[in-house]
Amino acid sequence: MKIERVELHRIALQYVHPFETSFGRERQRELILVSVSADGVTGWGECVAGAGPWYSYETVETAGHVLQSFLIPALLGEQVESPADAVARFGRVRGHAMARACLENAVWDLLARARGESLAAMLGGARERVPVGVSVGIEATLDELLDRVALHVEEGYGRVKLKIKPVWDVEVVRAVRERWPDLALQVDANSAYQLADAAVFRELDEFDLLLIEQPLHHEDIVDHAKLQAQLRTPVCLDESIHSPEHARWALDIGACKVINIKVGRVGGLTAARHIHDLCGQRGVPVWCGGMMETNVGRAVNVALATLPNFTMPGDISASARYFDEDIAAPDFVLSPDSTLDVPGGAGHGVRVELERVAAVRSALRVFLA
Ligand code: OSB
Ligand code: MG
Question: Tell me, what's the pLDDT at 350?
Fold first, then answer.
């Protein structure tokens, strides 16, 4: 297929509830949606870069720049028959994984739709539903946090992740663990600690957590290996893993026992599947992370999580946990067994509603071959 048209839609959606992590509190999701068209078929991708360079150095603006100046020109007018053709075209771009990922993912969706195949099937996944959990942000008080967790447990989430930071850690986890002794529980520090804080993690080691996510520096693997050696609880890396190479280096030195795979952070579905395969060969479980996506990004995450080594619940919550009204339909709904159904049909399985996109859009750029 010859890529004839690419569009960038800059949009913003209000969260149903503000989301606070160790790097700050946000009330809305600003993001770029990208569409790629060929032969009368259109595929969609979502860029997970945020408004500011907090989780990653990438932002909505840097992603827009790299897409417009380098990635879209490399793809427009080109013949693309497989995702590998798109990946090869982006090979010269270093970093900017989120910008690369959204365009590659749009190409996967385009090709899957053109073939009349689901994205999950095209990736090689077999599951019809995927186990999921919910990521609970930092709240102003412990009572408010306990209310949020109670709400999600009542909704049917069987696995909860708590965001932690210094002073919002051991006491918070103890309180949640006391009230829900059997809940599958994990924590995410988003790099808020140093190796000198290891005593905090030795205390957390007593609460039967599934894992401790990214406790130390956002580029580190060496200190994480030293910390993992002191803990029973598996360390899970998120921010530190940007490619299959980073995953291999981390596993080679024992920096973690689990990896959180985020399609945007690793630069697209091809790299995400490589990391999945590598971890599978080494007996290391993976799970699918989330970036507070719309239904477009969520559909990609659900498809990825159908691969066999995604054995832990993903941060892929129901649509209602994020926005009142999404830009794509149908919504993902939580089943009583804490799973989401994998959509049938061609492509990633959701339909972008153009009127809704236009209503929340601040800019549109169209590129023609
Ligand atoms: O560290 O996993 C993270 C959201 C934005 C940035 C980083 C992270 C998160 C989450 C949200 O934890 C998970 C979700 O999308 O539900
Ligand atoms: Mg994380």
Answer: 98
